[in-house]
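user: can you give me the structure for this one chain? tokens are fine.
assistant: on it. calling the predictor now.
[tool input]
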Amino acid sequence: MNPCVHTPGVTSFRGATLTLDQQRILYRRWNGPDDMHPQEAFIGLAALLHAATTTELRLLTLDDLIPSRQAVRFPGRSVDLVLDTATWNALTRCLDHRARLATDNPHVLVTRLTRTTRAPTGAAHIRDSLAPVGLLPRILRSTRLLTLADELDIKQLTSALGMSYAGVAHYA
């Protein structure tokens, strides 16, 4: 999938983002049948719909999950984030995969290499999980940030995402 550069109305951000049609294709892929690695779907949806960073995904632990509310608290964010059904289902499939690894590792995303440790997975694993769609997590996140910056007050956005004003202003 080839990312496009989003420029209408935004002159300060010049990175690659996805068109609405590209986002829909990815959403259908990650919300569809369970024929892919469960971490691809969760990583993709978390970045595309919730602007999750690679670091937030790597450091997400079981203690950050709030199953009774279908919510998570991404590391570094000050608010709990109630997940949509597709992302929650993808997270549940990740947790099932994690359970099959029979690990004591506290992180949600566990690999064969990290299952015997307490260390988070590497950033390369997050990147490689999206290799089947040919995208980097930052492109998905940037796509979401541009939308949020257009729709929300910048103070709300900085608070919700745990970002600095300067970091968010780049997208506004």
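assistant: here you go. Residues 85-100 form the longest helix (16 residues). The helical segments are 20-30, 38-50, 54-59, 85-100, 123-129, 137-151, 154-161, 165-169.
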